[in-house]
Design brief:
Blueprint: E1 4-5, E2 13-16, E3 25-28, E4 31-34, E5 44-46, E6 55-58, E7 61-66, E8 75-76, E9 81-82, E10 107-112, E11 118-119, E12 123-128, H1 134-143, E13 155-157, H2 168-182, E14 187-194, H3 202-209, E15 217-221, H4 228-243, E16 248-252, E17 257-262, H5 273-286, E18 290-293, H6 303-307, H7 313-332, H8 343-347, H9 353-360, E19 369-373, E20 383-387, H10 393-402, E21 407-412, E22 424-428, H11 431-436, E23 443-444, H12 454-469, H13 475-479
Parallel strand pairs: 12-13, 12-14, 14-15, 17-18, 17-21, 18-20, 19-20, 21-22, 22-23
Antiparallel strand pairs: 1-2, 2-5, 3-4, 5-8, 6-7, 7-9, 10-11, 10-16
Helix pairs in contact: 1-4, 2-3, 2-10, 5-12
């Protein structure tokens, strides 16, 4: 294993792939760099002298500005560099797209729904319209586990705190996300559980759901029942019987929609896990499939790379709006736009938002951007889509599911046990995490630093995702974890 990596020929820093000691001599670019201090794994060191105010280059782009003079061999982190980003920017469209070579589609074993769509799970979902009936939904879930069979793979209640006392966009967003989940093809049957007096009552929610199969989607209003739990269990029994008719069958991978996001990134995330996901994304898209990239605040600093990959100027304009609207959201609340790296990010070697963003966007691969989606908007265009949602793990992953993702790929350098409404695959950026948290991590990309070829690892990830789509359970599914969260921006009454 190499002790370090220089990612791009233009970089003025290299990244330690394992802890490096002060005094270590590094041979790179026909020169010797002597480390002037210890460099933790995932952290950066200077390959040349850098003057105060100069840009620091990683991934071939600026990741920040030197706060002081930095000597060759020095550790570079938050103590001697800062963000170089401004607030609202004016962008120019400089198209840089290259078509992917078509690949013959492969097949997964999924469920063909009556409306023609494909799902990768056959579950019965309980969707509360309002947080007031969360406990009832959970009681119905608990009392319905006898209906789970080899074919009906789960009965799951997705609780949340909203659905009433909301205003404006928040209320619309809640209704849209709930409707998206009702319509998701991973659900063979859905019980929509209402209270009766809430803002987002069933009649209102139906306007967002649109047309539905009354055998697949059922409604129950708790205030109209003598025993809402018993009645709910009976409805789930009927829904499970309906869902049981669906059997797995071969379906082209061109019908897969896969969500991509980061959580708890470290300095290796942009070197191992995220590029591997990007390689997977390109492979799936080359087969005719679709991927979704979200976490808009984690595009700041790398947004021009995505903008220039837009297939046309209309998509470029939508991407500019996607970015600037989110920056305005920060400004409306008086918050700093660029203070995004978490304490865990910084401990793992990420110094600035540019550093984080340039690593995060590696997940998008090289494909052209074919769609730009508002929060809660379903995917309708094949290929790479950008989705408006925050960086918060639960909110962003739920947004991916709501927009139609069958599976979410979640890269991490720190680890997390959570899951979203669809299978959530945890992908480790480093070997230590994969070894330590075997009950969390599904796939390890840390082996890239052990000289596993990048193309080979991306092929392995594609195989793994097809296995998940065909019924293999993720670690979070095995643990019984299913979370959802809705984006709150405004006033609660």
């Amino acid at each position: 294993m190499k002790p370090f990596i220089k990612i791009h020929p233009a970089d003025t820093v290299a990244v330690a792939l394992s802890p490096l000691k002060e005094g270590t001599e590094i041979q790179i670019d026909n020169q010797t760099v002597v480390l002037t201090e210890d460099i933790p794994q995932g952290h950066k060191f200077a390959l040349t002298n850098i003057t105060e105010g100069d840009s620091i280059i990683k991934y071939g782009n600026s990741i920040g500005v030197a706060k002081t003079d930095i000597t060759k061999g020095s550790w570079i982190h938050t103590h001697n560099m800062k963000t170089g980003l401004g607030d609202l920017l004016t962008y120019t469209y400089n198209k840089e797209t290259a078509p992917l070579a078509e690949k013959e589609s492969r097949f997964f074993n999924g469920y063909r729904r009556n409306d023609g769509r494909a799902g990768v799970r056959n579950e019965v979902w309980i969707i509360p319209t309002v947080g007031c009936v969360n406990n009832v939904a959970q009681a119905i879930e608990k009392g319905s586990q006898t209906f789970v069979t080899e074919n009906v793979e789960g009965v799951i209640a997705f609780t949340h705190p909203y659905g009433c006392s909301q205003m404006g966009d928040d209320q619309d967003h809640t209704r849209q996300i709930l409707a998206d989940l009702v319509n998701h093809p991973n659900a063979g049957g859905v019980l929509v559980l209402g209270l009766g007096c809430e803002n987002s009552n069933i009649d209102e929610l139906k306007k967002h759901i649109g047309e539905y199969d009354p055998k697949r989607v059922r409604f129950l209003v708790a205030q109209e029942c003598e025993d809402e739990i018993a009645d709910g269990i009976e409805v789930v029994r009927e829904l499970a019987a309906y869902a049981n008719q669906f059997k797995r069958e071969p379906i082209s991978c061109s019908e897969l929609v896969i969500g991509m996001k980061c959580g708890g990134s470290d300095g290796l995330s942009g070197i191992t896990a995220n590029p591997t996901v990007g390689g997977f994304s390109d492979r799936l898209i080359a087969m005719g499939g679709s991927t979704i990239l979200t976490e808009v605040p984690e595009m700041f600093g790398a947004e021009t790379l995505l903008m220039n990959r837009c297939e046309n100027e209309a998509l470029f304009d939508k991407t500019v709006t996607l970015i600037n609207d989110f920056k305005e959201y920060f400004k409306r609340h008086g918050q700093t736009i660029y203070e995004n790296p978490s304490p865990g990010n910084k401990k793992g070697g990420i110094s600035t938002l540019e550093d984080k963003s340039l690593g995060c966007t590696q997940k998008s691969g090289t494909a052209a951007v074919k769609g730009v989606l508002a929060y809660g908007e379903p995917v309708c265009t094949k290929g790479l889509n950008l989705l408006s949602a925050p960086g918060n793990d639960l909110v962003a992953a739920t947004a991916l599911a709501a927009s139609g993702a069958h599976i979410v790929l979640f890269t991490t350098g720190r680890g997390t046990p959570f899951a979203c409404p669809v299978p959530t695959v945890k992908i480790s950026s480093n070997n230590l995490l994969a070894q330590k948290k075997k009950n969390w991590i599904d796939f390890n990309c840390g082996v890239l630093v052990d000289d596993t070829p990048a193309d080979e690892l991306a092929d392995q990830l594609l195989d793994f995702v097809i296995d998940i789509a065909s019924g293999k359970k993720s670690k979070s599914e095995e643990a019984g974890f299913h979370d959802m969260a809705i984006f709150k921006q405004g006033v609660t009454l």
